[in-house]
Amino acid sequence: MRKPDLIAHRGYAARYPENTLQALEAAVAAGARFVEVDVQLSADGVPVLFHDRSLKRVCGVRGKVHRRGIADLAALSAFEPRRFGQRFAGTPMATLAQFRGFLQANPGVVGFVEAKPAAVRHFGRERVLDAIAAELEPVKGQCVLISSVLLLLLDAADRSRGAAKRLGWHAVGAVLSRWRQRHACSALCPEYLFCAIDGLPRTGEIRFQEARVAVYEVGSAGIALDLHRRGVDMIETFAIGELRRELEEHAGLPPG
User: Fold this and answer.
1) What residues contact 231, with CB distance under 8 A and at least 6 apart?
2) How confident is the model at residue 205 (pLDDT cuts 50, 70, 90)?
3) What pTM did the predictor assign?
4) Is 199 a domain residue?
5) Is position 87 within any domain?
6) Rounded Cα gap, residues 217 and 229, in angstroms
7) With bands split at pLDDT 50, 70 and 90, how would you rate the model's confidence at 88?
8) CA–CA distances in Å: residue 192 to residues 29, 77, 97, 148, 176
9) Which domain holds residue 177?
10) Pairing of strands 212-216, 192-196
11) Which residues make Cβ contacts (< 8 Å) with residue 26, sequence separation at least 6?
12) What is the pLDDT of residues 98-143, one digit of tens each?
């Protein structure tokens, strides 16, 4: 029986503040070959690794990412105080440029870079794509652009067919909340398709075109293996280390 590949969801987010360099480095130390990060833009257009529109949960302050310049964001701690208290106080918010450096230091790692809808709504598709491409061009062979914004992905695919603009990714992936939404992606023909586990049908195959299917968020080896039997190629998890160990113990399978 083959194993599913594991994706470290926002890095090793079960143990470290999400989307930080510390979480990413810990994920690689735990054996991750695939990592996923979220990207938004600061008020002055600098791409940063951040999931929420609001700064409250991760940084403990009010406000939105796109309303603060990069200098202001750099002064904040991305320490998730509700989960970790003051343990990670002083942990900086990571930029996409720093993520590029992380990939350069880990050439065997593939990064899934998710362009968040909030950034697209505020800055527009072209500016978001330009900002991501400018930072990730040197490591494009290690990067997959993913998003729940289908029009952004269609624009990204158009760029790959032309030579006028540089790319910061080698493939694209659609992010779905419900499996039934997959048909809207038919024209895109994505290389990857991500779907929330709560949006999957309870039975039957989980396959779409030639895409590699990834499911988030999974923390159980039993669930991961069952999904793999149904056709899922990749499992996205906050608990990369724990799930790897559980897979090792489950039926003697080495984890992906």
Assistant:
1) 205, 206, 207, 213
2) very high
3) 0.96
4) yes
5) no
6) 17
7) very high
8) 25, 33, 24, 12, 11
9) 5-52+93-249
10) parallel
11) 11, 12, 15, 16, 241
12) 999 999 999 999 999 999 999 999 999 999 999 999 999 999 999 9
Is residue 14 within 8 Å of residue 239, measured between CB atoms? yes
**CATH number of the domain to which 152 belongs:** 3.20.20.190
Q: What sign has the CA pseudo-torsion 191, 195, 197, 202? A: negative
Residue carrying the six token digits 């910061």? 168
Residue 40, classed as helix, strand or coil, is strand
Does the residue 164 lie in any domain?
A: yes
Is it the case that residue 256 has pLDDT exceeding 60? no
Give pLDDT tens digits for 44-60: 999 999 999 999 999 99
Whether the CB-CB separation of 95 and 70 falls below 8 Å is answered with yes
Which pair of tokens denotes residue 101? 């450096």
* 160-202 per-position pLDDT tens digit: 886 657 899 999 999 999 999 999 999 999 999 999 999 999 9
The SS3 call for residue 27 is helix
Tokens of 224: 């991961």
Cα(35)–Cα(112) distance, integer angstroms: 6
Residue 104 is assigned to a structural domain of this protein: yes
How many folded domains does the chain comprise? 1
Mean pLDDT of 20-40: 98
Position 64, amino acid? K
Please say whether the beta carbons of 240 and 30 come within 8 A: yes
Please give the structure tokens belonging to residue 130: 């330009």
CA proximity to 147, closest of 118, 181, 186, 113: 113
Sign (positive/negative) of CA torsion 30, 34, 40, 42? Answer: positive
CA atoms of 161 and 69, how far apart (whole Å):
34
